[in-house]
Amino acid sequence: MGFRSLRVFQARALTAQTAETDAIRFLVGTQSLKFDNQIHIIDFDDENNMINKSVLLHDAGEMWHISGSPADKAVLTTCYSKTSESRVLTCAAVWRMPPEWESGSHESPDDSSNNPQTLELLCHLDNTTHGSVACVLWEPLGDGKRVISLAENHVLLWDLQESSTKATISSTATLEGKGQLKFTAGKWSPHHNSTQLATANDTAIRGWDLRSMSQIYCIENAHGQLVRDLDFNPNKQYYLASCGDDCKVKFWDVRHINEPVKCLEEHSHWVWSVRYNHSHDQLLLTGSSDSRVILSNMVSISSEPFGHLVDDDDLSDNEESQQEDKGKEPLQDSIIATYEEHEDSVYAVEWSAADPWLFASLSYDGRLVINRVPRALKYHILL
Fold first, then answer.
1. Residues 343, 349, 353, 359: is their CA dihedral positive or negative?
2. Which of 177, 137, 170 is nearest to 153 (CA)?
3. Per the CATH hierarchy, to which homologous superfamily does domain 4-382 belong?
4. Which residues pair with 78 in a beta bridge?
5. Which pLDDT score is estimated for 321?
6. For the chain, is the Cβ count within 10 Å smaller at the N or the C terminus?
7. Average pLDDT, the chain
8. Does residue 335 have a pLDDT over 70?
9. In terms of Cα–Cα distance, which of 369, 334, 376 is closest to 352?
10. How far from 241 is each of 97, 189, 223, CA to CA, in Å?
């Protein structure tokens, strides 16, 4: 199957709908100074290889980040710009889609792009004392009641009430030290009962324990320049991928932070986005200002280095030596494919929550491309 694509306005905010696992759906937030900003709901009809688009108005402003609730497919958060007393602030809010959009069916409401409806504002996640918000993160396996916002140099943990119409800050942490103390990215770990968070600021990556709101590790110069994005390996609890303006993608074992476990140098410009596949953690997507999306097979540091699921922690010393004695070589890492359908900086890549072999990428000119993992590799992994 070839790729499918469509264009929206200028955009950099993309998320997969995670609470809905039957339909393949992505949400895109636009960045337009001339027009009303919109959320484009992109439904992919796999059987007919078609993209269907519905449009919702987002009157609040141009979007820098968007994220869907893991528990309620109609609820999402956006981070957006607004001018307040002649300065531009990035604010955050929780929204609900109108009921007819929730279904994820491919019947979009009539004429949604000519007569778009507006999102319902549930609550603001603003605390203007903390400054501009970089991103909002939902508790990965949660019930949609806890989110984290990263605002300037503050980590804010919010509790959402039953209907998400009210949010209260339950705890905070502050980044202290010299230099430009401003979070650029963060990821809530799906491991350790959702008690850990990783953040990026400048060239550093930090780990936080959300129970005590204290720092648990710091990788000082993780990248040579600004760190843009982070993602946790879904199957290996201590493994983290990062990317940044030094054109590199690095893999870390946060128990041993002196050196990265691996480093990829396949992009020729800033790397904006890195994503592990949710089911097969050897598959890794990256998107860059070089206008390319790269799909890598990082099998040597995956949970299946010998072709079957194995976790370092599960192997006793005896078993580890037996594993080595067998002389079974770990499979080789490789670049599976480089996708060059974009003509502008690729700001975001996301795997579908409904189909582990399908992913979307978004470039700044508003082009959204949906692609598949090559069939031969899919069968190699499955068989």
1. positive
2. 177
3. YVTN repeat-like/Quinoprotein amine dehydrogenase (2.130.10.10)
4. 66, 93
5. 47
6. C
7. 87
8. yes
9. 369
10. 32, 12, 12
